[in-house]
UniProtKB/TrEMBL annotation:
Keywords of this entry: Hydrolase, Membrane, Protease, Serine protease, Signal, Transmembrane, Transmembrane helix
Protein family: Belongs to the peptidase S8 family.
Ranges that cross the membrane: 390-413
Peptidase S8/S53 domain ranges (all copies): 64-324
SUPFAM superfamilies referenced in this protein's UniProt entry, alphabetically: Subtilisin-like
Native species: Streptomyces lateritius
UniProt-recorded name of the protein: S8 family serine peptidase
Region of interest (Disordered), residue spans: 332-370
Bias kind Pro residues: ranges: 358-368
PROSITE patterns assigned: SUBTILASE (PS51892)
Keyword Cell division: no
Classification via Pfam families: Peptidase_S8
């Protein structure tokens, strides 16, 4: 159970309002049928997110070798595409109670899928196919018992020790699929994030998704200083409608119709949401860190931010897409100066560590663009010489994927995917 100190803070902050319009714990919103891909298309050709990032050009420079990503999710199935890529899997409190214990399989394959499916046949690739994934498994909170706040607490009970384990592990990067719909989290999770940051870990977390409210607010722990909050964009580089909005959105990555490996049926699933976008952001960092193993977390993140595809309105960042869409190819080819190895490149962590003096002026907040401005600047030139419009031109739709909605009450960010029959 959470500490008395934490329970008192929960009462003070009325965490009964943690549930935002049914947004759920590692949501199970869309379950459906995935047809076998058309024979005229390879599975790789249907992975539009890899095409948009020029994956083959990236792999000529880096495949993420030597870097481990700790993936905090409900569990990962040892599918053929992940043979030799999974290390040090561990369950944490509540993992056995997860309603779906394999939701982390698609994000894991999005990070490190080898492209080799059952029998060695061609299948889904990850963005960093030689990276390792450490599955750290927690509950999805969908227990059907207790109050909604109790279920949020149950997720926190597993999340805090999972973060500490990742902090003490060889993993350089932590990818958190969880997005709790609460303004205040647990003291234990807060402390665990601080501990992981003190160990030099680069932490990415899903900002969350919700179908039932316009511009859903960013969830927890993506709200915490030092955590890189990841939102989702579609094939047009436009924010996915369900992706959370707020000042804690730092970057975006593909998070719609992402094809990855899973168990059963055809062995392929499509996924939508900020959890898979977060996995791709972590994979992008793994690519850069693999090429520059002597860099610190701060330098890797700074280069990713310096080479980003910014908001279309020309502002530094927006509450819809943060600083913009990650461009790992440009980060690899023209990284520029990685800067101070000891200085965190985003202002939130620096601000949280500073006590402002009375003379410190209040910074002017970044204006929030209208929904029509919540797109990436498609005129920006990418690191491979193509305009960002190249991302759009090469987007390939996944063929024959049908979905049906399942009305599951959700506690945290709604997660979507199509399952094979």
């Amino acid at each position: 159970m959470l500490s008395d100190r934490n329970q008192e803070r929960d009462r003070q902050n009325n965490r009964g309002r943690a549930l935002r319009c049914g947004a759920g714990v590692l949501g199970l919103a869309l379950l459906g049928i995935a047809a076998t891909p058309a024979h005229a298309e390879t599975i790789r050709s249907q992975q539009w997110h890899l095409t948009s990032m020029a994956a083959e050009k990236i792999w000529a420079i880096s495949k993420g070798e030597g870097v481990t990503v700790a993936l905090i999710d409900t569990g990962v199935t040892e599918v053929p595409e992940l043979t030799g890529r999974l290390v040090g899997a561990k369950d944490f409190p509540g993992a056995d109670s997860a309603k779906n214990k394999t939701l982390g399989t698609v994000p894991a394959s999005a990070i490190a899928g080898t492209g080799r499916g059952p029998g060695g046949r061609e299948s889904a690739f990850g963005l960093a196919p030689k990276a390792k994934v450490m599955p750290l498994n927690i509950t999805d909170g969908v227990t059907g018992e207790g109050s909604l706040a109790d279920q949020v607490d149950a997720v926190s009970e597993g999340l805090a020790p999972a973060l500490r384990h990742a902090a003490d592990s060889p993993a350089k990067i932590i990818s958190i699929s969880v997005s709790l719909g609460t303004d205040e989290g647990s003291v234990e999770v807060d402390d665990a994030v601080s501990y992981a940051l003190s160990k030099g870990k680069l932490i990415f977390a899903a900002v969350g998704d919700a179908d039932y409210v316009d511009d859903p607010p960013v969830g927890y722990p993506a709200r915490l200083p030092g955590v890189v909050g990841v939102g989702a964009v579609d094939k047009k580089l436009t924010r996915v409608k369900t992706s959370a909005v707020g000042p804690e959105v730092d970057v975006v990555a593909p998070g719609a119709d992402v094809i990855g490996a899973c168990s059963g049926g055809t062995g392929l699933c499509t996924s939508k949401g900020t959890h898979v976008a977060t996995a791709l952001a972590a994979a992008a960092a793994a690519l850069v860190w693999s090429k520059h193993p002597d860099w610190t977390r701060n330098q890797v993140l700074r280069v990713l931010l310096n080479t980003i595809n910014g908001p279309a309105g020309g502002e530094v960042r927006s509450d819809y897409i943060g600083y913009g869409a990650l461009r790992p190819l440009r980060a690899l080819k023209t990284p520029g100066d990685p800067g101070d190895p000891d200085e965190f490149p985003m202002p939130d962590l620096r601000d949280a560590m500073m006590t402002p003096s009375p003379s410190t002026p209040t910074p002017t907040p970044t204006p929030i663009p209208s929904a029509s401005q919540a797109v990436v600047d498609v005129a920006a030139v990418g690191g491979d010489g193509h305009s960002a419009g190249f991302w759009i031109a090469l987007g390939v739709s996944a063929a024959g994927l049908l979905c049906v909605t399942v009305g599951t009450p959700l506690l945290v960010a709604e997660r979507r995917r199509s399952l094979p029959s």
